[in-house]
Amino acid sequence: MEKEYLDLLRRRLSEKTCLHSLGVGRMARDLAGSRGLSGHKAFTAGILHDYAREMEDESLLREARRFSIPVDAVMQVHPILLHGPVGAEMVREELGIEDPEILTAIRCHTCGGERMSPLARIIYAADILEPSRDFPGVEELRRRLQEDFAGGLIQVVESTINYVLSQHYLLHPATVDFWNELMQEEKE
Ligand SMILES: [Fe+2]
Ligand SMILES: [Fe+2]
Question: How far is the CA of 153 from the centre of ligand 2 (A)?
Fold first, then answer.
């Protein structure tokens, strides 16, 4: 199955993004397995999550219109954020994948959001921490996530938000909602 998906991805993504996608698929499968979730679903969502990652801004905006995906003010400024929702629709249309859990995980992997399923949270974390990712502190984050998924996820979202702020990018409201929900869960 890995090879079939990789061949498919190689037709539309760079080698680097293909390796990243495979890393996310494998890491998501492991995380799902150790949490009693479907490893197959996690692998499928993980390897396909960046299906639309290398489309130009114009194409992402055009496809968003075609799929009736709402484009909010932040996405207007950073159309790259649309590669999650557009990718989910393309995977459905082109590959015939209809599983709502897989599609939602792909849709939410960039900005996060409220009420994400355990699978969607796994894809979000694996996207940042798969083995080819390299940034200061990544190994510590990986270790934390293995030992304590909830605590590790909070650190992943925190580091993502810190990065967005440090670059003076716009922070998407869905990421704020995600953060607030995690903080509420932590206090419960
Ligand atoms: Fe992505
Ligand atoms: Fe990714």
Answer: 16
The conformation of residue 172, written as its DSSP 8-state character, comes to: P
Distance CA 50, CA 34 (A): 24
Domain annotation for the chain: domains and CATH numbers:
2-187 (1.10.3210.10)
Cα 160 to averaged position of ligand 2 atoms, centre (Å): 13
Say how many Å lie between the CA of residue 151 and the centre of ligand 1: 22
Which candidate, 142, 140, 156, places its Cα nearest to that of 27? Answer: 142
Both structure tokens of 54: 């290398």
Position 1 pLDDT exceeds 80: no
- Nearest bound ligand to CA 60? 1
Name the residue with tokens 């590790």. 152
Per residue in 45-58, pLDDT (tens digit) is 999 999 999 999 99
Residue 68: both structure tokens together: 């009736």
Report the share of the chain in percent with pLDDT over 70.
100
| Whether residue 36 has pLDDT greater than 80 | yes
Please give the span between the terminal C-alpha atoms of the chain, in angstroms, as a whole number.
40
Tell me how far the alpha carbon of residue 49 lies from the centroid of ligand 1, in angstroms. 6
Q: Which residues neighbour 186 within 8 Å (Cβ) at sequence distance 6 or greater?
A: 150, 154
- Work out the pLDDT band at 2, boundaries 50, 70, 90: confident
